[in-house]
Amino acid sequence: MTTAQLDSLVTLLRSRPAPEKPDVGEARAGFEKMAQVLGGAPDAQCEKVDAGGVPAEWVAAPGHDTQRAVLYLHGGGYAIGSINTHRRLAYDISAASGARVLVIDYRLAPEHPFPAAVDDATTAWRWLLQQGLAANRLAIAGDSAGGGLTIATLVNLRDRKLGLPACAVAISPWVDLEGAGTSIITRSAQDPMVQKAGLLWMAGMYLNGKDAKTPLAAPLHADLKGLPPVLVQVGTAETLLDDATRVAEKLHAAGGDVRLAVWPNMLHVFPLFAPILSEGREGCIEIGAFIRSKTG
């Protein structure tokens, strides 16, 4: 680990403290600005598409396999984030996996609360199959809320008999909308990005009055039987550590093929910071190798 890289990143993140009265518009703009710090990928092949009515963009690294693809669901608490904020991560995953990555702009809360995100992810999945891609050459991946959405989408696809991908990746997944995990408190001082108050604020917008244990909103409470292999990746310096470990345990208890990768001292969604953090690059390589092994 390059300590200087990590310290510099943590300092940068702590320089943007959460406001006392959060505003969705300001939070969205702040996330977009943070993504600009990470820079783009000059040799990325990007193509905007309409994925069955869901705005989307193909992001691919040179030499990718056109018959293999990843449906990517960005993080941001179901209220912020976009293709723009995750284009670089999509590129890094494409480069590591050799597959194209379809990033979607699913509808966000509070304008579009649950189940809009699940519906849009499901629509995009069906669109991928309509393009002639085989389910066993596809993966679904996402980070934070998008990691939870990844698990929820798998459950929805299974229940609706819409086919399942060869595998899935949940990076620092948010699967408990009540914030009941122990790490939400014990890792609070270490995590420069995610705190309980902000999570509950976003959960409230997304749930819009629905029960916080609704399975497709909080997949920690879903029946996880019959899902494809899942890589759950998380850092020890994040408040959502227990979300990752608990959902991995539940996947295992349901008879699933699950790999839990816990990275020492890493912060929330550390692969997002691959351009400036060596462990971020290594995390993307781990994700890519997993996807290659299951979709090849």
Name the strands of the widest sheet in spatial order. Answer: 1-2-4-3-5-6-7-8
- Helix/strand/pairing class, anyone? alpha/beta
- N-to-C order of helices and strands: HHEEEHEHEHEHHEHEH
Helix content: 40-55%
Number of strands: 8
Mean pLDDT across every amino acid position: 96
N- to C-terminal separation?
30 Å
Unreliable segments of 5+ consecutive residues: none
CA-atom Rg in angstroms: 17 Å
Discrete helix count: 9
Q: Could you give a short account of the major beta sheet?
A: 8 strands, mixed
Shape: globular
In words, what does this structure look like?
This protein has 296 residues and is of the alpha/beta class. Helix content is 40%, strand content 18%. Helix 4 (116-130) packs across helix 5 (145-159). It starts with a helix and ends with a helix.
Task: State the main characteristics.
296 residues; alpha/beta; 9 helices; globular
Task: Walk me through the topology.
Layout: H1 3-14, H2 24-38, E1 45-51, E2 54-60, E3 65-73, H3 83-97, E4 99-104, H4 116-130, E5 138-143, H5 145-159, E6 167-171, H6 183-186, H7 196-207, E7 230-235, H8 241-253, E8 258-263, H9 278-295
Parallel strand pairs: 3-4, 3-5, 5-6, 6-7, 7-8
Antiparallel strand pairs: 1-2, 2-4
Question: Brief description of this entry?
Answer:
With 296 residues, the protein is α/β, with parallel strands linked by helices.
